[in-house]
Amino acid sequence: MRLDVITIFPHYLEQPLAESLIGKAREKGILDIRVHDLRAHAVDTYGSVDDEPYGGGAGMVMRPEPWFAAVESIDGWKQAHRILLTPAGRRLDQQVASTLATQSHLILLCGRYEGIDERVSEGLILDEISIGDYVLAGGEAAALVLIEATTRLVDGVVKERESIERESFSAGLLDYPVYTRPAEFRGMKVPDVLLSGHHAEIERWRSEQQQQRTADRRPDLLPPDLPD
Ligand code: 6GU
Q: Which residue among 62, 136, 145 is best mutated to probe the pocket of ligand 1, counting the most ligand atoms within 8 A of its Cβ?
C-alpha cells in the first residue's frame, strides 16, 4: 500500500511511522509511506500557508494553493483515495478501517482545527474522516490513528494472522482478559480454567467473558434485545 501524508508538522509523524509494525512493514516494502511538508508549497518565501477568514472571525484559515500544489506533486494522485482528517468527517471505526485497507493508495491531508478553505474539500477530497467526538489541534494524531488501524489489516503487516482473524470472528465484542506467569501474584490468582488444559472449556470461558465485559462496559456494541 502507498500512503502519502501532507502536514505542516512532518517531524511529528516521522518517528511513530518508523517504529514497530509499521516501521518493519516499510522496511519489507509492504508499505510505501511518504510524509510531505505543506510549507514546501507555500505561497511565498516565508512559508505562509494560511490567511484571515473572508467574512471575519477568529483564527486563520489554510489557503487552498499549497494543498493543491502538494497533492498534485504526488505521482498517481488522481487515482488515489484522498482523505481529509477533520472533526467534521465520518467517524473512523473498524469497518471504515477495513474498507480503507483494500485501497492501493491513500493520500491523507492533515488540517489544522481552525479550518481549511472549503475549495480543498470541493476540488481535492473524496472522503472526510474524524477519529471521535473531541477536538484535536490538528489532524496529525488522527492520521497516525487511521494509518495504524488501517495498515495492520493489510496483508503481511501483522505476522500473527490469528490475532486479526480472532478479532473479526469476535467482531464488535471486547476482548477477554489474558494472563501469563506467575499463576499467583500478590494474592491475585489466574482463573483455574486457564490452567486446566481443557480447550473447549477455555473457549467457553473466554466467550462468556467477552459477552460479560461488553454488556458491562459497552452495552451499545451488543445487538438490540428482540421483543417477546
Ligand atoms: Cl481528524 N481532526 C481534528 N482536528 N480533531 C479531531 C479529529 C480530526 N478527529 C477527532 N477530533
A: 136
